[in-house]
DNA sequence: TGATGTGAAGCGGTTCACAGCG
DNA sequence: CGCTGTGAACCGCTTCACATCA
């Protein structure tokens, strides 16, 4: 067995754990009981060795000669990822992308509740969209504190993103998912991840242009 | 100087090049003429050495003692990334996320035109949304071929994603951006990138839970 | 002088190969 | 016997340090 101590876990490992979990939930729906590292790898676009190594960073959860119990491994991964609870999320910016996120049920299914949304447009204030109340942007700090919100999503135009991040950080939010196409600075005790659709397309543009199949995991 | 030969470029390098480009465009708007690797690094969340190394994989574009010419480097990166042209994109699935993408002007600003959209709901067929014609999903192959579309975006429910990917690949699309929360298989000559919002939030959940500031580039 | 470009060192993630065990 | 768990080898990205040159 393995220590599961204060090991430093890489971002790529964490991302793969999430992918494993997503796949395990699908297997659960299908009523599968056991799964091997080979099958997990095939379903998640990686290798059996990588799967076993990733899991071994946290303990030993398999049965030699048989594989992993789907349900047990699923719960284990949920625990590791901190998904044994629900998370309250603040959404800032209710434009095209923000509205889509408000109506996107997959978030709630996977444990993330948008508890409040904010927009600077007074016309939107007071509305309830997809069951979520829209507040004036001015009330961000107040509401985030009051509702003990720990995660923020920025879906504003890029010009406002940094200011919003500052306010979210100031209000005690520990992590931010940023959809604005800019890099934003936050204090060390806050984590940001930026999702930029056009940037991903640019990566694909490079691949198509250079003809270069980039280092591909099999 | 440097060969810019058939070097194998890592995905992380390509992603950073896109970030540099995004930042350079901002500098252009601001009228800045020169930029050093240090400033580029600060604005893009990386290190000066990393910036210089990334660029050196393709050539030498700077002036010793001065830095890089913003405009020149911007055009160089656009060339490297294959952005010296516009790309035609097919959008499949016009639900919450798909609709948001249809109205998201940043895509067009950065060179990606949604040339056609597809949905299996007959009620939507024939409509024109944000200037884009919506076709029945049955006409996907036909329209993609006719319009010489090279990129696909999947924004369908996860159950349909694999079938759509198969059809896009069959129709000659070389790269796919997948918003459905499943891993999809494609032939070797096609590249897929999956964007899963909940998966990113799970990564943040892990960080908040483990208290572990993951290996952070500064 | 100041910042680039780059070989070399360092480091960490991935892959290998096999011991361990059900 | 089959598949997990894991130390060790491997490999590639990142960082360092400095020669180079405007």
Topology of this protein?
The structure is a homodimer of 218-residue chains.
Chain A: H1 11-29, E1 34-35, H2 37-44, H3 48-56, E2 68-69, H4 70-81, E3 87-92, H5 96-102, H6 105-109, E4 112-119, E5 128-129, E6 132-136, H7 140-146, E7 151-154, H8 158-170, E8 175-178, E9 191-194, H9 197-210
Helix pairs in contact in A: 1-2, 1-4, 2-3
The first copy, chain A, binds a DNA duplex (22 and 22 nucleotides) through residues 1-2, 8, 10, 12-13, 36-38, 47-50, 52-53, 55-56, 60-68, 215, 217.
What do these coordinates show?
Two copies of one chain form a homodimer. Helix content of chain A is 43%, strand content 17%. The first copy, chain A, contains nine helices and nine strands. Chain A has helices at residues 11-29, 37-44, 48-56, 70-81, 96-102, 105-109, 140-146, 158-170, 197-210, and strands spanning 34-35, 68-69, 87-92, 112-119, 128-129, 132-136, 151-154, 175-178, 191-194. Chain A has a seven-stranded mixed β-sheet, sandwiched between helices. In chain A, helix 1 packs antiparallel against helix 4 and helix 2 packs across helix 3 (48-56). Chain A starts with 10 loop residues before the first helix and ends in an 8-residue tail after the last helix. The relative contact order of chain A is 0.09. Residues 214-218 of chain A have low confidence and may be disordered. Chain A binds a DNA duplex (22 and 22 nucleotides) through helix 3.
